[in-house]
Design brief:
This protein is mainly α. The protein contains 17 helices and no strands. It has one domain.
């Protein structure tokens, strides 16, 4: 039975609706994990460090897609909730066109300046050429990657989360097979890793584009539309928290790498890369849940259904608390196994990675609430509050922590930075949720 945004959501119905988004985000995260596994085990830790050093740059450029997807889907779901289907399709279509144009522009600029960017990020002579090769190939699929990020949100809004999951699984399996062939069999190194990821991103971005271009039975379709700068501006503002989150993550990752180069050299960067790969899988649960519930929030807010808004909000808080505790426990229990998958060939690097991940995983306890809080306000159309939570959580608090804590605790201070930043952000999230409760009626 198909679930509609207008339905009443029991726990069972809510989880059935959001599980495709959660699994979709997990599969998206596995792309990077598979690349990391093959590069680390079949190529070498120097190349692995190079991939981790340059990866934040294309991810930062691709953040535009997250902004358009989350900010735009909130507006589109509100329009659908108000019964304005024609307007919803026009907004959706305009945003897809803008994403393609911006993607092409950023691709050209990124390819031109990739070497300078790699040097700016601290690439040593041993790492530089690997960074440039991997980065340039990955940038060729940047537009498709941005579209993939946009469609992750809009497929949920179109009431087709399962179709979104199928596309992501196909793209993910493509990445796994190509990594095995290009790296494991043909030994193409970082070039093979980049090609595998790029091809999978093209699949993830082009298939939904074709789907929406053709006649379909979803709540959305691509139609003729003009650029509405007011709506575009509102989309960008509303989705600025997600843009901020992804850009901040990239900037912070760069800062972590610079600090790790100072405190632990290439091994530190490699250890952090493993932690980030594994971390993406765990937080994919939080992000997937936020993406899956956002259209429900936007629809019911647009329809003025405060009772259902409150229902989904309360269930979401309970889910994120429970999931955070469970994932922290699982991460600590599996820390040795997960570190061993990537760096079992180097005892010192293995111990550094395992210890770092145990400390880092404490952040999962509260991370879900912060991610949901930011997404919740985006869905309500309050981009300012959402952006503030995101800015403080992913950028300001982390920068302060990663610069100050290592002075006191050394290398462990770098791993602790995320935990301290998330705890500080939780205070901000709670304040905003409490003070805005009466305004939105949740």
């Amino acid at each position: 039975m198909e679930i509609k945004l207008s339905d009443h959501f029991t726990y069972k119905r809510l989880f059935r609706f959001v599980i495709p988004s959660i699994v979709m985000m997990i599969f998206t995260s596995i792309y990077g994990v598979v690349d990391g596994f093959f590069v680390s085990n079949y190529v070498g830790k120097t190349e692995f460090a190079a991939v981790n050093l340059i990866m934040p740059f294309p991810m930062m450029l691709g953040a535009f897609g997250f902004m358009v997807g989350t900010g735009g889907s909130a507006l589109v779901s509100m329009s659908l909730g108000q019964g304005k289907k024609k307007e919803a399709n026009e907004i959706f279509s305009m945003l897809i066109k803008v994403t393609i144009i911006v993607g092409i522009l950023l691709t050209v600029l990124g390819i031109v300046f990739i070497r300078e960017i790699a040097l700016l990020l601290g690439a040593t002579p041993d790492l530089l050429e690997h960074c440039v090769s991997y980065g340039r190939i990955l940038l060729l699929s940047l537009t498709a990657f941005m579209l993939q990020n946009v469609f992750q949100s809009f497929l949920v809004t179109a009431e087709k989360p399962t179709f979104g999951l199928v596309i992501t699984v196909i793209a993910g399996l493509t990445n796994v097979v190509l990594d095995f062939v290009l790296i494991g069999v043909l030994r193409w190194g970082v070039v093979g890793a980049a090609l595998a990821t790029s091809i999978s991103q093209i699949i993830g971005g082009v298939i939904p584009l074709i789907y929406f271009l053709r006649e379909n039975n979803s709540a959305l379709k691509l139609v003729r539309s003009k650029v509405n700068y007011r709506i575009l501006g509102k989309t960008c503002f509303n989705g600025s928290s997600e843009l901020m989150t992804n850009i901040s993550m990239s900037i912070v990752n760069m800062l972590y790498n610079l600090q790790l180069m100072n405190y632990a050299g290439e091994d530190g960067v490699a250890a952090y890369g493993v932690i980030m790969y594994v971390n993406f899988i765990f937080i994919a649960v939080f992000i997937g849940y936020a993406v899956g519930t956002a259209p429900i929030i936007g629809y019911n807010y647009g329809a003025g259904n405060k009772e259902e808004l409150t229902n989904v909000y309360k269930k979401s808080i309970r889910f994120n608390v429970g999931a955070g505790i469970a994932m922290c426990a699982a991460a600590i229990a599996l820390s040795g196994v997960l570190a061993g998958i990537f760096v079992s060939y180097d005892a010192a690097l293995f111990e550094m990675t395992k210890n770092g991940f145990i400390i880092y995983s404490l952040s999962f306890i509260v991370m879900g609430l912060n991610i949901y809080g930011s997404s919740f306000f985006t869905a309500l159309g309050n981009g300012l509050v959402s952006a503030l939570i995101s800015f403080l959580r992913t950028l300001l608090f982390q920068i302060i922590a990663v610069l100050v804590l290592p002075i006191i605790f050394g290398l462990n201070g770098i791993w602790m930075a995320i935990v301290v930043a998330e705890l500080m952000a939780l205070v901000v999230t709670i304040v905003f949720l409490v003070t805005n409760k009466k305004k939105y009626g949740y």
